[in-house]
Specification:
CATH superfamily: Protein tyrosine phosphatase superfamily
Helix content: 40-55%
Shape: globular
Low-confidence stretches: none
CATH architecture: Alpha-Beta Complex
Order of helices and strands: EEHEHEHEHHH
Strand content: 5-15%
Mean pLDDT: 96
Number of domains: 1
CATH class: Alpha Beta
Number of helices: 6
Strand order of the largest sheet: 1-2-5-3-4
Distance between the termini: 35 Å
Largest sheet: 5 strands, mixed
Length: 143
């Protein structure tokens, strides 16, 4: 299931290679895989997902986020991916949570207001309170 967070961002739990053609049919232009390879035995590899995305005419970025948390390199990579996107973005992980959190961190780093990000995420069913301090710090540096 693809969950809209903003008009230009959808998030999802684990996708399959077959989902890439469906995403392209929905207008997605870029797929961001935030799930590390090998997290579950039954998940496709990032290379399998990349190949399927490219066959569907989609751009693809692999920005894995482990359960250990987020680093600035991941936030920067997501910031770049969102900035370079030429249309709607679909980000996925196991449940969509890490993708939503990373999106919010990237948008805060770009200067979006944490309150707005929190409201958008909440409307999609995601809670940004665990990273609120980081959102505030990133937004303050951007301003």
């Amino acid at each position: 299931m693809l969950i809209p967070v903003t008009p230009d961002l959808l998030v999802a739990g684990q996708l399959s290679p077959a989902d890439m053609a469906r995403a392209a049919a929905r207008g997605v232009r870029l797929v961001v895989n935030n799930r590390p390879d090998g997290e579950a035995e039954d998940q496709p590899t990032s290379e399998e997902m990349r190949a399927a995305a490219e066959r569907a005419g989609l751009l693809y970025r692999y920005i894995p986020v482990t359960h250990a948390g987020f680093g600035l390199a991941q936030v920067d990579a997501m910031t770049d991916a969102l900035r370079d996107a030429t249309g709607p973005v679909l980000a996925f992980c196991r449940s969509g949570t890490r993708s939503t959190l990373l999106w919010a961190l990237a948008r805060a780093r770009a200067g979006d207001r944490p309150e707005d990000l929190q409201a958008q995420a909440a409307a999609a069913g995601y809670d940004l309170s665990p990273i609120r301090h980081s959102l505030d710090a990133l937004a303050a540096r951007a301003g």
